[in-house]
Amino acid sequence: MSLRIVVCVKYVPDATGDRRFTEDLVTDRESVDGLLSELDEYAVEQALQIAGSADDAEVTVVTMGPADATDALRKALSMGADKAVHVEDDDLVGTDAPGTSLVLARAIEKTGYDLVVCGMASTDGTMGVLPAMLAERLGVPQVTLLSEVSVADGLVTGRRDGDTASEQLQAALPAVVSVTDQSGEARYPSFKGIMAAKKKPVETLDLEDLEIDAAEAGLEGAWTTVEEAVERPARTKGEVVEDEGEGEGAKQLAGFLADRKFI
Question: Can you give the CATH number for the domain in which 79 is found?
Fold first, then answer.
């Protein structure tokens, strides 16, 4: 039986752009260019490596987002994924992590899966909670923050590296895993892969297809809200401390730290 691997990816605002909030205090995804979250590229890469080691495997990428999120799916398809699922619905604007986990879980169940692979976090929200929420929604084990992952004999095995030690973790399939940016560099799409991606199937679903009420998603169904957002202050010119060799510079630095209660 084919190993069904689903990779969750996200279309995010370019971190080098001028990212802002809209008047509704949700991320403005229209005034800045978007792209496939860099951390999700590692998830796609690991899924492709697992598929390459299996006798028979299929990799499906799933995303939730606006029409332009298809660009993120096409990037993953050009890397080597087989097909894609795009959940798009106007009522999804402002959906938080719990709502996103509900939508993606329903889409994953509809697609069918043995293994779900996620990045460690998205580069816009950087919350890192979605893999755990997905596992809870799907009712399967989670093995998260892996630097190394493999699948064999119905088990997913991985290594989680901490500051002082590494853990070897294992779970029975079906399961959800997340991988870190230490899991291995993501491949660059080849010209052949880019051309092939244009012909690969992309299924579009909405909330009705997933049997989710609009009140369970979007701003209306959000468990969390942003109450206020202010722009970060512009950087100011620093103060140069000069010392003629008499130790005055050290005294000035000590006074600076003391005034700000650092010492």
Answer: 3.40.50.620
